[in-house]
Amino acid sequence: MSETDSPTIAYYTVMEDERTGWTGGLLLLNGGGRPLEFQCTLPVRPTRAHEILFGLTLRDHLIGEVIGPLLVRKCRTPITLLCCDQPEALKIETRTQCPVALVEEAALSDEGPIDDESLIGSTRVELAGSTLRVAIEQAEQVQQLAAGLIDLPDATEPFDRIREAIKEAQSQIARSQSSRLPPAAAA
Fold first, then answer.
1. How far is it, in rounded angstroms, from Cα 101 to Cα 132?
2. What is the value of pTM for the model shown?
């Protein structure tokens, strides 16, 4: 099996910051956990009108319908499996050709731990010492993919890499913006 034929695993998460907005990152790894590609959005700042109109569904909309699909489309390397740490990201499944899984051990929720009721219609698949929640219809496919990803060292750690990369990108943007300010304004 050539490098291009080997399974790839993408990790996707979104960070929310009151000051900068919502920033998404997608890290694509080979079966051994090495990076193949990284995509990151500029911060998305919903307007007050968006906040009012979307109400409690704004988070779902941004994570699952705006930021995630954009990052998947930008990815140049085919994705075999997409893992996320936010249940809202599972909506990407309707906009991609690959299965989408929630990594239970990394799952983030505003309300605390992810409950089984919010994941009705899903089942568990083991990958690299972690539990993936996947749609029942995709369980067999994901089990086969997981069997091909035996060299993956950790199924949760890539989310930390994405968050660190986003922080670094944001600090580089801040540094470049402050270097363009006139000397009196930069002080």
1. 6
2. 0.86
Topology, domain 9-181: archaeoglobus fulgidus dsm 4304 fold (3.30.2170)
For residue 79, what are the contacts with CB-CB under 8 A and spacing of at least 6?
8, 9, 10, 28, 72, 96, 98
Give the C-alpha separation, 167 to 155, whole Å: 21
Residue 27 three-state SS: strand
Longest dimension (CA), the chain: 62
The domain ranges of the chain are 9-181
Instruction: Note the pLDDT tens digit of each residue in 37-66.
Output: 999 999 999 999 999 999 999 999 999 999
Specify whether the CB–CB gap between 133 and 100 falls below 8 A: no
The token pair at 147 is: 């069997």
pLDDT tier at 93, thresholds 50, 70, 90: confident
